[in-house]
Amino acid sequence: MTTSRRKFIKISALGLGGAFASTSAFNLFGNTSYLSEKTAQSISKNLKKSATYCEVCFWKCAAWAYSDENNTIKKIIGNDNDPHCYGRLCPRGTGGVGMYADEDRLKTPLIRTTINGEETFREASWDEALDLIASKFKNIKEKYGAESFALLKHGSPGKHLEHLFKAYGSDTIAEPAYAQCRGAREAGFNLTFGSWIGSPEPTDIRDTKCLVLIGSHIGENMHNSQVQEMSDAIDNKATIITVDPRLSTAASKSKYWLAIKPATDIALMLAWMNVIINEEIYDKAYVEKYTTGFEELKKHVANFTPEWAYGITTIQPAEIRKTAREMAHAAPAVIIHPGRHVSWYGDDTQRARAMAILNGLLGSWGRRGGFYFKEKVSIPKYPHPKYPHPKWDWSDIGEKFPLAQMGITTEVIKCAIPSKDNKYPVKALMVAGTNITKSIPNKKLLEEAMNELEFMVVLDTMPMDVTGYADVVLPECTYLERYDGIRSATNREPSIAVRVPAVKPKYDSKPGWWVAKQIGDRIGLSDYFRYSNYKEVIEWQLQKMGTSLDEMKKIGVKNFPRTSRPLYLEENENYEFPTESGKIELYSKELENLGFDAMPVYTKHPEPPQGFYRLNYGRAPMHTFSRTANNPNLNGLKSENNLWVNPKVARIIGLKKGQSVWLKNQDGVTSTFSIKVRVTERIRWDSVYMVHGFGHDNKKLTRAFGKGINDTQMITKTMDDPIMGGTGMRGNFVTILTKNPYKKQAI
Ligand SMILES: Nc1nc2c(c(=O)[nH]1)N[C@H]1C(S)=C(S)[C@@H](COP(=O)(O)OP(=O)(O)OC[C@H]3O[C@@H](n4cnc5c(=O)[nH]c(N)nc54)[C@H](O)[C@@H]3O)O[C@H]1N2
Ligand SMILES: Nc1nc2c(c(=O)[nH]1)N[C@H]1C(S)=C(S)[C@@H](COP(=O)(O)OP(=O)(O)OC[C@H]3O[C@@H](n4cnc5c(=O)[nH]c(N)nc54)[C@H](O)[C@@H]3O)O[C@H]1N2
Ligand code: SF4
Ligand SMILES: [Mo]
What we know:
Elements: H1 6-21, H2 37-42, E1 48-53, E2 62-67, E3 73-78, H3 91-94, H4 97-101, E4 110-115, E5 118-123, H5 126-144, E6 149-153, H6 155-168, E7 173-174, H7 176-193, E8 210-214, H8 224-235, E9 239-243, H9 249-252, E10 256-258, H10 265-278, H11 284-290, E11 291-292, H12 294-301, H13 306-313, H14 317-330, E12 334-336, H15 348-362, H16 394-397, H17 409-414, E13 428-432, H18 436-439, H19 443-452, E14 455-460, E15 472-475, E16 487-489, E17 495-497, H20 512-522, H21 534-544, H22 549-555, E18 557-559, E19 584-585, H23 589-593, E20 613-618, H24 632-637, E21 642-645, H25 647-653, E22 660-665, E23 675-679, E24 687-691, E25 719-720, E26 727-728, E27 733-737
Parallel strand pairs: 6-7, 6-13, 8-9, 8-12, 9-10, 11-19, 13-14, 14-15, 20-24, 21-23
Antiparallel strand pairs: 1-2, 2-3, 4-5, 4-15, 16-17, 17-18, 20-27, 22-23, 22-27, 25-26
Helix pairs in contact: 1-8, 5-20, 6-20, 7-15, 10-13, 10-14, 10-15, 13-14
Molybdenum atom binds near residues 177, 182 and 341.
């Protein structure tokens, strides 16, 4: 497929432009929001400029928030010196002001109560709410041990609560950004190269000659500098190869779009290895010097020909060969992108291994245009006593997954359901900055667990669905209203960024650090919180790092020179990889010793039964998960998700564009809300697609309530990755209901 290359850039610019053109919050300065800092400064003389980093997603772009004398944020723009954003925010970041301005925000602490037999929330003072929480912390510790109080968290508030929990004696901590997101790729790449990919990914997209995206939909996935670098790479005539059952934005700008049959990626990658090895187009010197297990791999893939893969993936052998040669031709300036949300089919560590092995064969790790060696500066630890040692923690809970490197949310949740085999009883839960009812599948399990909990507290900025299960709800102020930890980022050059409050907290909301300290002080942990304001912590840290808060307030971001090693491998360098063998492990002894396949194997996954379609989901450029659906600015850009349906399917079922339908999945779960149909060739006939994060069921979200379908509700079947515990979520099948299942039909 040949496509116009310029258009991709236009599309991303248009997306970004649209963010301010149609949002009222930017009327005043509207079209300056996407300008670079220099241009914007000239028109912003009368506004206060505060250093921050964006919390609309976890890329954490450094930014400037501009506010006026009335404590109102006028706009947010990117910091020119920031390697995460190169001076430009994505539409979500620009719309971040809506997180602050949203009138639906949580405004005061709430406590669950019963009035006339009905459970409801009543407003409470911070003192009352914190005293209650503190008494529960003490009570749970006395009755069951501190370990029984679990923390599910995400983002910067999570860091402060993590400190509180560890000080209290609990490391029963997990976040959906591991098992429901990138855990499997970290395990797969770690097994192969000895290091995690981490965030941001050390992909040298800017200088690449060939970028291979396997289900990674950069362009809709708006991780900022990655998108910008991809635009540059396209400008520089890099070849983009996209493997996706859906014509993603990236696919539409690619030289090759391989519309793979879902769940068959490992077969394609084995065939690529077969071609690259048989045609001897791998990087021989690199493979010889840096890898181990090549002969085993060669034997392993000998029969996995493109013809074999064709029968599985539906991709023509000639296409498989051509794309393999393109990659080899560009090598080592080639990236088989590791993806990010990779919890798909349960064999995800092995799929990540296949990606890693391809990068190994093509010699792209440690090479210009491939993967660079990332570097980070460490932030000095603010002094506090040692954490007590818990009797059990997240790793015990996840013990059946030998390579789990972080807590597994679903396993922690299962521990809340009492049973005689449950060695690790979870009795209370704090949820901070994660909307688990949307980000963790299997609602039934979640509800059962939450029913069993003795106590649950939620810290959020919004009345998200998850708050409905809480005993106490705490309103955090938004990132624009608080200090937070210093952002230390791994990039080509290390950098730090600070977040200072641009305005005073609205309503009766408070920063996460303050909440953690208040609870800590109340339960005898004051020694862990020896400051009255988090500002003191970062002041102390910045001074130790040779800068100051005053300096950082002026510059926002500080870049440091590299000190660890050159960005790429030097010619013939004797480099030892941090794996057990010191080499890139094409064959993994570690996996073999644990009883797993030492090299990736393709296994067939279940297919949709007659009348059902595979539920596929992903991102929209102007939204982040479920957190932005109600954002006044971003809701204006897209207020609901649509169901992508192939015209062939639409014909069979008799669906029309814009028609509202409901979904029912393989386990008989019917969607609470309906969704409008979008008939498009861009999706294969065996799947349907929707953007994640819609279908909110809390009426307090006045803009988002009832808009579209919540994909998570339809995900009741999960496939655990036996290696690291990832939650495979792409094996659910839905059938389309054209009649409202909740309305009694006339007989
Ligand atoms: N079905 C399905 N499930 C998924 C995914 C999917 O695509 N489909 N994606 C997966 C992936 S990749 C990930 S990383 C996870 C993400 O999962 P989550 O981290 O749960 O993401 P969000 O849905 O954004 O929920 C974030 C919550 O934090 C709140 N919040 C926002 N800012 C702040 C703040 O400053 N302070 C506090 N205290 N709270 C704040 C928001 O209001 C929201 O309730 O979900 C995973 N789960
Ligand atoms: N705008 C925006 N950007 C974001 C986020 C956001 O919420 N909003 N979240 C960020 C986060 S935390 C993450 S983890 C990333 C996630 O984004 P990515 O890691 O880029 O993508 P995934 O969500 O894994 O995959 C989505 C793509 O996979 C395709 N796909 C589905 N099944 C298959 C299959 O079997 N094989 C192949 N080859 N492809 C398949 C889908 O059609 C879709 O295009 O996005 C990040 N960027
Ligand atoms: S990528 Fe966008 S939403 Fe994410 S941190 Fe950067 S500007 Fe914010
Ligand atoms: Mo993620």
